[in-house]
Amino acid sequence: MSNIDDDITTLRESGGYASEEAVLEDAVRALLAKRPELRTELAVTKYRNSEVSLNRAAELAGVAPAEFKETLSERGITRTAGFLSDAEREAARRR
Predict the structure, then answer these.
(1) CA distance 1 to 3
(2) What is the CA radius of gyration of the chain?
(3) Contact 50/28 with Cβ under 8 angstroms?
(4) Which residue in 24, 71, 75, 79 has the most C-beta neighbors within 10 A?
(5) Are 61 and 43 in contact (CB under 8 A)?
(6) What sections of 1-95 are H helices per DSSP?
(7) For residue 28, what pLDDT is reported?
(8) By C-alpha distance, which of 22, 30, 23 is closest to 8?
(9) What sections of the sequence does the record tag as coiled-coil (predicted)?
(10) At what angle do helices 54-61 and 65-74 cross, to 10 degrees?
(11) 0.90 exceeded by the pTM?
(12) Rounded distance, CA 44 to CA 41, Å?
């Protein structure tokens, strides 16, 4: 089996990607497309950590907001109403 770090470097050096980060971004996108349950886990975690809004989390999970609300409820995650301050929004954007 090949070494992942070497494969990432080879893909970048072959000209297919501008950076190793771009290789990883593409790999994560492909993984999330293939495994929708991971999209849901990512969305729930980002929502729970106040990194994204409910609507954005639903979008990440690939479901309607109403369905995402059900997912949160099933997991015992309470929703909070309110708006982020400009500073909180900027901090979340940088994460």
Answers:
(1) 7
(2) 17
(3) no
(4) 71
(5) yes
(6) 4-13, 20-34, 36-48, 54-61, 65-74, 86-94
(7) 95
(8) 23
(9) none
(10) 90
(11) no
(12) 5
Smallest CA-to-CA distance from 82 within 54, 63, 56 is with: 54
Nearest to 42 by CA among 20, 58, 27, 65: 58
- For 29, the token pair is 């996108």
> Any idea which residue has 């980060």 for tokens?
21
Q: Give yes or no for residue 64 having a pLDDT over 90.
A: yes
The domains of the chain are located at 1-34, 36-95
* Torsions phi, psi for 17 (to 5 deg): -140, 150
- For the record, the structure tokens of 10 come out as 């080879």
Q: Which of the two residues, 13 and 90, has the higher pLDDT score?
A: 13
C-beta of residue 58 within 8 angstroms of C-beta of residue 43 = yes
Q: What is the pLDDT of residues 68-91, one digit of tens each?
A: 999 999 999 987 665 666 777 787
In this predicted structure, the answer to whether residue 1 has a pLDDT above a threshold of 60 is no
Q: Which pLDDT score is estimated for 54?
A: 93
Terminus-to-terminus CA distance in the chain, angstroms? 33
